[in-house]
Specification:
It is a single chain. This protein is of the alpha+beta class and 448 residues long. The chain is 30% helix and 17% strand. The protein folds into 2 domains: 201 residues, Beta-lactamase (3-Layer(aba) Sandwich), CATH 3.40.710; 155 residues, D-Ala-D-Ala carboxypeptidase C, peptidase S13 (D-tyrosyl-trna(Tyr) Deacylase, Chain: A). It is built from 12 helices and 12 strands. The strands form 3 sheets. A 5-stranded antiparallel β-sheet has the order 2-1-12-11-10, sandwiched between helices. Strands 7-6-5-4-8 form a 5-stranded mixed β-sheet. Strands 3-9 form a two-stranded antiparallel ribbon. Helix 2 runs antiparallel to helix 12, helix 3 packs antiparallel against helix 7 and helix 4 crosses helix 6.
Length: 448
């Protein structure tokens, strides 16, 4: 189980053996479960952490005025799954981007860590009709990846393959001698493209894209789009024309025939890497697309509502009581989302123990304190430095809200899952420092 690999150190668990690297590698998350994760769980050499020990370690950080009066905290012994510190841990509060942990769990459970998403071109109903079918790949791009990137999931590559398939041997005349009509099918997702609980400024300012099953460049092909699927298809039409495919007219939304012949496809990076993008970079569009994908797979509803229902179903399947949970998106942008700290901690426990053989990927995706993602510039103050490399956690920030939830290796080797939540923080910078100090305090204590 994963916990055996995590129980000594969190530095370097992005794909290689632990305990040797001083700076974690930035490689893409592994495509299959690494061998070291299959080692049996070994009992700690010391007595388990205690509530009193945790309380003593957290007393100073939790007294920080910048956190506000409504903090909630849950700390679990990840080896046993036991809740060992509870400060209003069952109270539902605004989670901000720690919501993405639940989204990651749902997506990995629904699809598996190695699943790849296809974007395809198929033959339409009408003669010489090409249908671009979106599979919900959040990382699809317009241009071909550069040599440092491993994905070929680009519109450019798809255009190459499509042109090769439909052009005659001479490379000049479309099969049948007439122009192609290009349509697009993004019907995997349904409902509104943005959450009704989001202020319009979120999309207008590029904080998140409108969510469809067919987007490239994070939903911002050529800028902010009212309809990312249409913008993506127009870009694809341009790429086909450059390659000699005669595309006429303006792309329109359609439905691909159920028995359509596939002409070409590109595949995404594995689901583990997509989850890493959502967690490490706190990528809102990627997270909400993952939630829609989970909804489509789990409850046959690829929408904001379907994603929320999928999370509840997955929690139930993991044996986690969803009481108090209310979700309106998968990114955590909605202020109407509420999650008890208890649920976040239990999900982290499930990830640490690899409860369904796929959740391990989320632990690799979380930022490493002081090194990667949204934690790369944190844990720099002297009081927080003991947490550098020992903490993997997801951050969460909205105006007046500061959260941090993850895993930490304590000084004696205990692995702890924690969720720190401040839904009424008057000073966000001070709150971040306090949470970093709290995680660092767990890293350096025996907590007995």
């Amino acid at each position: 189980m994963l916990i055996a690999a995590l129980g000594t150190t969190l530095v370097g668990i992005a794909g290689g053996p632990a305990a040797t690297a001083t700076v974690p590698p930035l490689a893409t998350a592994p495509q299959s479960t690494p061998d070291q994760l299959l080692a049996p769980v070994t009992a700690p050499n010391t007595t388990p952490p205690t509530s009193a020990g945790i309380a003593a370690a957290l007393a100073g950080p939790l007294s920080a005025p910048g956190l506000g009066p409504a903090t909630t905290v849950a700390v679990f012994d990840a080896r046993t799954g036991q809740l060992i510190y509870d400060k209003s841990a069952s109270k539902p509060v605004t989670p901000a981007s720690t919501t993405k942990l639940l989204t990651a769990a749902a997506a990995l459970t629904a699809y598996g860590a190695d699943h790849r998403i296809k974007t395809t071109v198929v033959a339409g109903v009408s003669p010489n009709e090409l249908v671009l079918v979106g599979g919900g790949d959040p990382l699809l791009r317009s241009a071909r990846p550069n040599s440092k990137e491993s994905s070929d999931a680009s519109l450019a590559q798809l255009a190459d393959r499509t042109a090769a398939a439909v052009l005659s041997a001479g490379g000049e005349t479309p099969v049948g001698g007439t122009p192609f009509a290009l349509t697009f099918d993004d019907g995997l997702f349904s409902g509104p493209m943005s959450s009704p609980t989001w202020p319009p400024t979120y999309v207008q300012e590029g904080i998140v894209s409108r969510i469809t099953a067919l987007i490239a460049d994070g939903g911002f092909v050529g800028g902010i789009n009212d309809d990312p699927s249409l913008a993506t298809t127009k870009k694809f039409a341009e790429l086909l024309k450059v390659r000699g495919v005669n595309v006429s007219g303006s792309p329109k939304r359609s439905s691909a025939p159920a028995d359509a012949s596939e002409i070409a496809n590109v595949e995404s990076l594995p689901m583990s890497a997509i989850v890493q993008q959502a967690l490490e970079e706190s990528d809102n569009t990627t997270a909400d697309m993952l939630a829609h994908l989970a909804g489509a797979a789990v409850v046959n509803d690829g929408s904001f509502n379907g994603g929320a229902r999928a999370v509840t179903e997955v929690l139930n399947g993991l044996g986690i009581d969803p009481s108090g949970l209310q979700l309106f998106d998968g990114s955590g942008l909605s202020r109407d989302n509420v999650i008890p700290a208890r649920i976040l901690g239990q999900v982290l426990n499930a990830m640490a123990t690899n409860a369904n053989d796929n959740l391990w990927a989320a632990t690799y995706g979380m930022p490493v304190a002081g090194f990667t993602g949204s934690l790369d510039d944190r844990f720099v103050a002297p009081a927080t430095q003991p947490g550098r490399g020992q903490v993997r956690a997801k951050t969460g920030t909205l105006t007046g809200v500061s959260t941090l939830a993850g895993l930490v290796t304590a000084a004696d080797g205990d692995l702890l899952a924690f969720a720190f939540m401040a839904p009424t923080a008057p000073d966000l910078l001070a709150a971040e420092i306090a949470w970093d100090q709290a995680a660092a305090a767990l890293a350096q204590c025996g907590c007995k």
